[in-house]
Amino acid sequence: MDFKTHISFEPSEKAAIEELIEGMDRTNLVSVICYFTQEYSAKKLSKLFSRLLPDVSILGCSSSKGIITERGVHFGSVVGVIAIYDSHSDAYGSGLINFSEDELSGDMVRKAINIALHKAGREGEVPSFAIVHSTPGFEESLIRHIDNVFQTPIPIMGASAADNAIKGQWSIFNEDASTNRGFAIQLLFPSKPLASGFSAGYSPTLLKGTVTKAAGRELLEIDGSPAQDVYRQWIHNHVNEKLPKRLKFEFVTQYPLGRIAGSLYDQPYYKLSHPVDVNPNGGIHLFTDIQVGDKVTLMSGDKRELISRPARVIKEAKRQSINNFQVSGAICIICAGAMKYLGDDIHEVYRIIKQEMKDTPFICPFTFGEQGRFINGENGHGNLMISSVTFYSSK
């Protein structure tokens, strides 16, 4: 397997895609994973890729404010891709579902998977890996339905589409269509091994409680008290600082809520929920589902830990490599909230990833939710997480 990244700052979709494709070698090109900022139309990107690369599996997802590749941090209006080259023993296929007011159903997910399997020529088989991109709002149910279709939690790497200011200007696409409400999945049957990672870069505090009232993604009460009051008090107790009346995105990014996802050597690891805003009724809107009975812990994000975490997740994935293989490419999903919290320190994130990856191609978008496979084998969705896949090739 081989990988190449390409970026374009051309303002029009046509000029950007033409520039990207002009730099690509078409021989053995099997898949293109694209990340782009909100200034570009997913519909136009889809049509252009489909016309210019008719036999290639395409998957696209919007990213907040920019992307990272091995050549640097690229902010502004930008389209970036990682091109995947593989041999005749490989297979790649994608499917996309767009829906409006209906709830996500198992039939929708099965349909998208069947389309992807048909394109890959692998009907009835279980893929080695899946890349999943959705618009925000239904990630947990999407993962459950994917697991149900395959009757096993296949390894996934996922990301929720993002925009620059949480105004719904996010979108996804594949070679067939685009949507600002739906999901797309690419199923991979690669010719060489791969390894995935999924981790949080935050530490638990001693402040914790039990959810006693919730509805969907609205956390209403913790231990019988308004969730908003408890959350504010927890932060005040932890740092002796009161929250403003309206939550600031960058501030609460430092203090997500954590739920234990499993344990390793008796040490718990967490999936995170990012508070979005407070409600007049005392509740808190989250970027994840929450349920009555969930145990929640106030988490704290140290900047140095957040800066080093992406490279550590990639390094851990590299440790899984077999002696006969070397790293040939990687995709690393970084939360947009963490990116905004880090500010200029995101360039230090790049430097550390680059130090780990050397000149190996990689791409990192900034998203509003991350999905991946925990070390216990379960797939999950969280916020402020790092999700990655590292690919190998023969030495």
Q: Which helices and strands appear, and what pairs or packs with what?
A:
Elements: E1 2-8, H1 13-22, E2 29-36, H2 42-52, E3 57-62, E4 66-69, E5 72-75, E6 79-85, E7 91-98, H3 106-120, E8 129-134, H4 139-150, E9 156-160, E10 172-174, E11 178-179, E12 182-189, E13 194-200, E14 203-215, E15 218-222, E16 225-226, H5 227-239, H6 249-252, E17 257-264, E18 267-273, E19 275-278, E20 284-286, E21 295-300, H7 303-319, E22 325-335, H8 336-342, H9 346-357, E23 362-367, E24 370-373, E25 379-382, E26 385-394
Parallel strand pairs: 2-3, 8-9, 22-23
Antiparallel strand pairs: 1-6, 2-6, 3-10, 4-5, 4-23, 7-12, 8-12, 9-24, 10-11, 13-26, 14-15, 14-21, 15-16, 15-20, 17-18, 17-21, 19-20, 22-26, 24-25
Brief descriptors of the model:
395 residues; alpha+beta; 2 domains; eight-stranded antiparallel beta sheet; six-stranded mixed beta sheet; 9 helices; 26 strands; 26% helix; globular; FIST_C; FIST C-terminal domain-containing protein; FIST_domain_N
Question: What does this molecule look like?
Answer:
The protein has two domains: 2-199 and 305-394, no CATH class; 211-300, no CATH class. Helix 1 (13-22) packs parallel to helix 2 (42-52), helix 3 (106-120) crosses helix 4 (139-150) and helix 7 packs parallel to helix 9. Helices cover 26% and strands 40% of the residues. The strands form four sheets. Strands 14, 15, 16, 17, 18, 19, 20 and 21 form an eight-stranded antiparallel β-sheet that branches. Strands 1-6-2-3-10-11 form a six-stranded mixed β-sheet, with helices on one face. Helix 2 (42-52) links the parallel strand 2 (29-36) and strand 3. The chain has helices at 13-22, 42-52, 106-120, 139-150, 227-239, 249-252, 303-319, 336-342, 346-357; strands at 2-8, 29-36, 57-62, 66-69, 72-75, 79-85, 91-98, 129-134, 156-160, 172-174, 178-179, 182-189, 194-200, 203-215, 218-222, 225-226, 257-264, 267-273, 275-278, 284-286, 295-300, 325-335, 362-367, 370-373, 379-382, 385-394. It is globular, with a radius of gyration of 20 Å. With 395 residues, the chain is α+β, with helices and mostly antiparallel strands.
